């Protein structure tokens, strides 16, 4: 998902350039999914999620803090913002970002990116083996086992 978005960054975010994927910082094991910079010299740290929850908010806050610490140590004064990109967001996350003025962007990913991870949109039914003497296990659900003939 992240790699697909990064490969089409110019289409989704004109004027923004990819700096790194899996961007880490010295002295810590945390890594942002992606780091970009725009024409105004604003650096963005990205966290990609299928569904953004409290965990995503905590992660991006830590990433931004680590990036700001690293930039200050290097004598840089660039503006760093966090971005959470997801297909959907818990309503409390949206409210919290707005209410606390966290300067975190919430980017709704287009549904077509769901295919970026190579997840098939159609899968063949799975064959359920028949166990001799256990035929009554599925009877209570009213479903018949899918049986595929083998060649």
TrEMBL record:
Gene Ontology molecular function: nucleic acid binding
The name this protein goes by in its record: Uncharacterized protein
InterPro entries: tRNA_endonuc-like_dom_sf
Species whose genome carries this gene: Sphaerisporangium krabiense
Organism domain of life: Bacteria
């Amino acid at each position: 998902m992240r790699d697909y978005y990064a490969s089409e960054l110019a289409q989704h975010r004109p004027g923004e350039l990819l700096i790194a994927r899996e961007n880490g910082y010295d002295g810590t094991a945390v890594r942002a999914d992606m780091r970009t910079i725009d024409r105004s010299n604003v650096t963005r740290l990205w966290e990609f999620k299928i569904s953004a929850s409290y965990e995503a908010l905590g992660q991006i806050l830590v990433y931004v803090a680590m990036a700001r610490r690293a930039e200050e140590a290097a004598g840089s004064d660039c503006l760093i913002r966090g971005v959470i990109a997801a297909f959907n967001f818990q309503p409390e996350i949206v409210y919290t970002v707005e209410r606390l003025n966290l300067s975190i962007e919430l980017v709704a990913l287009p549904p077509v990116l769901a295919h970026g991870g190579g997840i098939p949109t159609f899968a063949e039914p799975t064959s359920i083996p028949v166990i001799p003497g256990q035929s009554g296990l599925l009877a209570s659900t009213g479903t018949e086992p899918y049986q595929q003939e083998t060649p």
